[in-house]
Design a protein that fits this description.
28 strands, 2 domains, elongated, Beta-lactamase, single chain, 23 helices, five-stranded mixed beta sheet, alpha+beta
């Protein structure tokens, strides 16, 4: 009921522009005399007061995130556009758009008075705005003004049907026609115009509707696209195939009228049903539908936070979503798919327990992150969905991290070796054991006395055995002797920090892993032991190319020696014993691969978090399992996972098998590599290569006592009940039927011990 005034206003506006344009042309081609001269002078003065320099910014183009092998991980965009040269657009597409939108395109100079008057007559006959009279050049101008509008008023001015807008378009169009050739203008138009269904530009539209390049468009396909431009929503063939088909046929008839095609060709193309030519392909925006959504998001977070990609957050986001970047990442699809399958096998995505698992895999020699996954889908709501990346720190979209448990003991071992402690030295690791000589290495204040317990029993151990059985008081004794600063410094030099970005605390419970960390930092640290003490900062991006083919600088691994090779190799040798060493020390035997490997389990107080960190010479990985809602409120104990009840879950019950299966899949098809270690104290790797045969050392007598860090799931009411078999989730190796001590216990650090919880694989209690 309100349409008539609007239509009338539009007709009046079009008439006004026609009159003004006529006056301008009259001033150009006729003497300036009498009333006509006055009108022309007024028209020319008004016309020339309008600026003619059009600001043509770079059009937003979609960026693509690739795996290391060039396969697509995700596409990111503000507008789904891929710019192409006119030579990459099928000739029939060029002809179709000119035929239906501006048949005199090759004849006019940017303003087509004949077309404007024709539109005026047509619209007056129908009583509505059916034809706009705009040339392709004017349409290009309008699209540019819309694209560059930064305020609501500028956007209204660019879209409004007013004489002033039309006058401005004509002014810009005339200037552009002097600056560019017709093919250049047509190329710009085809790259900017909206084709509906989220597709900007002819290339994106061709791929959206027909899943092919614009260079390969056929006649009916080209006519379909050309017909969409007038009303992109109404003529979207995926939403309104009948309307779109009718409009396509209008284009075909017009092409025949103008001689671009024959009537026979037009009729043949018009006879093809729309459903027979449609082959729609939606390009999802962002990481949600990617097979590696959390790795993908980490890549985007790196770009959003690194000043190298822009001076502020807005400019970095603009580069990412508008820049037409090709971002080649370090992701190896084989490793990613293997890791994803492993975490989902042991803790399914929507498991009723709500428990989670995450893994990051890193190449030691380069820092390349080859896999990063967790048993969650990307999403903001619903069971099994999250947007938190459990693998990374808070700054990159992660949580505050998870307590690392006994996986931290390697840093204490390295610090002790650096301080001159012999790995063969026998140290009393009784339980409970009280420590009275801890000193705050930064303030000089005294800690304690503090009492810590082992869950593995008491004994006197050398370092390899203590590391294998994870004897807490052994490593607390080392820390008391060497001081609290060096173990933390070594860990930090290998990239370990708290999940919130803070430095590690220098506290007596350090080796018990009481601080929250992320799997990514632990994978990088363990990779350093595999790489002879050379730390390579984990990186996710190999290279970035902009829309013009220019390289953009990316973060580098900056590999550097942070630990003496002999010390790093000695720790690596001891960790190989945990997997492939003498029977008594081989507490992670179920993680054995078809090649040399080293690793360490970890669990925290009350089984709030479980870990396995390990490596081969050419790949390192860290696995965490727990409950994102809070490990102490929802511990990995008295829990049913994948239909199997566990009274207690250990580091080698779920994290270990996830590590093993992920590594097996990632390394499948590659030759086993030997550890080339230079160790101290006569330490040797537990596994060697002879030709293509892996050789295990001969079993040696177990130490006395020979506690074991059990990695089994117990289905019995208590760990001491050994009569009941222990089922395994999926393909987990059968847990031991023998009773085994708990890996965890309770801890109450003193007021001066600022860590909030303790301890891995033992209980620790502080005495006032």
């Amino acid at each position: 009921m309100n349409k008539r005034p609007s239509r009338l206003a539009g007709l009046v506006a079009l008439l006004g522009v026609a009159i003004l344009a006529g006056a301008v042309l009259a001033g150009m081609f006729f003497p300036v005399v009498g009333g006509l001269g006055a009108l022309a002078r007024q028209g020319i003065t008004a016309f020339e007061s309008v600026p003619d320099q059009l600001d043509e910014p770079q059009l937003p183009q979609r960026s693509v995130v690739l795996a290391a092998d060039g396969s697509i991980i995700a596409t990111v965009y503000y507008q789904n556009r891929v710019e192409v040269p006119l030579t990459s657009v099928a000739p029939v597409m060029r002809e179709a758009i000119v035929a239906i939108e501006d048949s005199r395109f090759l004849e006019h100079n940017g303003m087509d008075l004949r077309g404007t008057l024709r539109a005026l007559v047509s619209n007056s006959q129908t009583g509505s705005i059916q034809q706009g009279g705009s040339t392709l050049t004017q349409q290009y101008v309008k699209n540019v003004l819309i694209a560059t509008a930064t305020t609501a008023s500028e956007l209204d001015a660019a879209k409004g049907r007013t004489p002033s807008r039309k006058l401005r378009e004509i002014r810009f169009a005339l200037a552009l026609e002097r600056r560019y050739t017709k093919p250049e203008i047509l190329e710009r138009y085809l790259n900017i115009v909206y084709f509906g269904a989220g597709a900007y530009g002819v290339e994106a539209a061709s791929r959206r509707y027909f899943n092919k390049a614009a260079a390969d468009l056929t006649l009916p396909e080209a006519a379909t696209l050309a017909g969409i431009v007038q009303a992109p929503t109404a003529f979207d063939p995926t939403r309104n195939p009948k309307l779109s088909q009718d409009r396509r046929n209008v284009v075909l008839r017009r092409m025949a009228e103008l001689g671009y095609i024959t009537s026979v060709a037009a009729e043949a193309a018009a006879a093809i049903p729309m459903k027979e030519i449609l082959n729609s392909s939606l390009v999802e925006n962002g990481c949600t539908s990617s097979y590696a959504p959390f790795f993908c998001d980490y890549v985007l977070q790196v770009m959003r936070t690194d000043p190298a990609f822009g001076e502020d957050a807005a400019s970095r986001e603009a580069l990412l979503r508008r820049g037409g970047l090709t971002i080649r990442t370090t992701l190896q699809p084989q490793a990613q798919k293997s890791a994803s399958a492993a975490v989902s096998t042991y803790i399914p995505n929507k498991d009723a327990s709500g428990r989670a698992a995450a893994i990051t895999m890193v190449t030691p020699q380069t820092g390349a992150i080859v896999a990063m996954t967790q048993n969650r889908d990307w999403g903001t709501s619903g069971r099994g969905n999250t947007t938190y990346n459990y693998n990374v720190n808070t700054a990159y979209g992660g949580s505050i991290g998870m307590q690392a448990g006994s996986t931290f003991k390697v840093f204490t071992a390295a610090a002790a070796l650096e301080a001159g402690v012999s790995p063969a030295e026998q140290i009393n690791a009784s339980t409970p054991k009280t420590f009275e000589n801890f000193t705050n290495c930064t303030t000089g204040e005294k800690f304690g006395p503090l009492t810590f317990n082992n869950s593995t029993g008491s004994g006197t151990y050398d370092m390899p055995t203590a590391l294998a059985v994870s004897a807490n008081t052994y490593f607390i004794t080392l820390a008391e002797r060497i001081g609290l600063c060096e173990q933390a410094r070594i860990a930090e030099s290998m990239g370990v920090m708290q999940g919130n970005g803070d430095s590690l605390l220098r506290v007596p419970s350090f080796s018990l892993g009481t601080m929250e960390v992320a799997p990514l930092s632990m994978a990088g640290a363990y990779a350093t032991f595999a790489n002879h003490g050379v730390f390579c900062t984990p990186v996710a991006i190999l290279d970035i190319t902009d829309r013009n083919g220019n390289q953009i600088a990316v973060p580098r691994a900056n590999c550097r020696q942070v630990l003496d090779r002999n010390i790093a190799d000695s720790v690596a040798a001891m960790l190989t014993g945990v997997i492939d060493g003498p029977v008594g020390n081989r507490t992670a035997a179920s993680m054995s691969l078809d090649r040399p490997a080293g690793g360490k389990t970890g669990s925290t107080n009350d089984n709030a978090a479980l870990w396995f960190c390990g490596f081969t010479p050419d790949l390192a990985a860290a696995v965490w399992a727990g409950d994102p809602r809070g490990g102490f409120q929802y511990p990995m104990a008295d829990v049913t996972i994948k239909g199997v009840y566990y009274s207690t879950v250990y580091g080698s019950t779920i994290p270990g098998p996830i590590w093993r299966e992920s590594m097996e899949g990632a390394l499948a098809g590659s030759e086993p590599q030997a550890f080339e270690l230079q160790t101290t104290g006569g330490l040797l790797p537990a596994r060697t290569l002879t030709g293509n045969t892996v050789v295990l050392p001969s079993p040696s007598p177990s130490p006395s006592p020979s506690p074991t860090e059990s990695g089994s799931a117990s289905t019995s009411p208590s760990p001491s009940d050994s009569s009941s078999p222990s089922p395994s989730p999926g393909p987990t190796p059968s847990p031991s039927l023998s009773p085994s001590p708990s890996e965890s216990g309770s801890a109450s650090p003193s007021a001066t011990d600022t860590s909030s919880a303790s301890a891995t694989e033992t209980s620790a209690s502080a005495t006032p």
